[in-house]
Amino acid sequence: MKSFAYFLGKAIDYLEKICMTGSVLSVIFMMLLVTADVTGRKFFGQPIPGSVEINEEYLMVTMVYLAMSYVYIQGGHVRVTLIRRFLPQVFLKVIDPCLNALGLAFFSLITYFGWQKTATALKFKETSSCILAFPMAPAYFLLTLGAALLCVRIIESIVQPAKIKWEEN
Predict the structure, then answer these.
(1) Dihedral sign computed on CA atoms, order 135, 139, 142, 143
(2) Which residue has the higher pLDDT, 4 or 39?
(3) How far apart are the C-alpha atoms of 150 and 111, rounded to whole Å?
(4) What mean pLDDT is predicted for residues 33-40?
(5) In angstroms, rounded to a whole number, what is the distance separating the alpha carbons of residues 85 and 82?
(6) Do 104 and 151 form a contact (C-beta atoms < 8 A)?
(7) Are 32 and 71 in contact (CB under 8 A)?
(8) What is the dihedral sign for C-alpha 54, 58, 59, 61?
(9) Helix (H) or strand (E) holding 43
(10) What does the pLDDT read at residue 1?
(11) CA separation for the pair 90, 29 (Å, rounded)
(12) I need a labelling partner for 134 at 20 to 30 A (CA). Which of 101, 107, 118, 121 fits?
């Protein structure tokens, strides 16, 4: 019989794949929107209203935050490895969990305050300052979701360090 942790892990993997798909789609949509905006501006003298704000406030947030946990689990985040190769393994076994704990604390704060901001935006019906005045709560929620998924992956890397595919260059 499979444990609860197994099913929870599979659910997180599935949610992470959905988030990564959303991130990739946001890059594609960003490319299409910028192309259409530039084309409209150059050839017709008519840019797409709110396209810059949509890119800044939705698509970039989606692209970055929804991909963070996947990039982390693949070992793709920036690491300073120049000094690591000269440090003894015993030291690295102590320092890596400490650095992970600092990352967890940082992204836990982002998750907490992101959730607070999402709730506030929902309560007060916060909208973008652009002409379209689209709601901001979904963008804040996507930020919170991405940071929360990264927190889960950092906890997972503390408990199971071998799961992360770190490459030493």
Answers:
(1) negative
(2) 39
(3) 9
(4) 96
(5) 7
(6) yes
(7) no
(8) positive
(9) helix 4-44
(10) 59
(11) 46
(12) 107
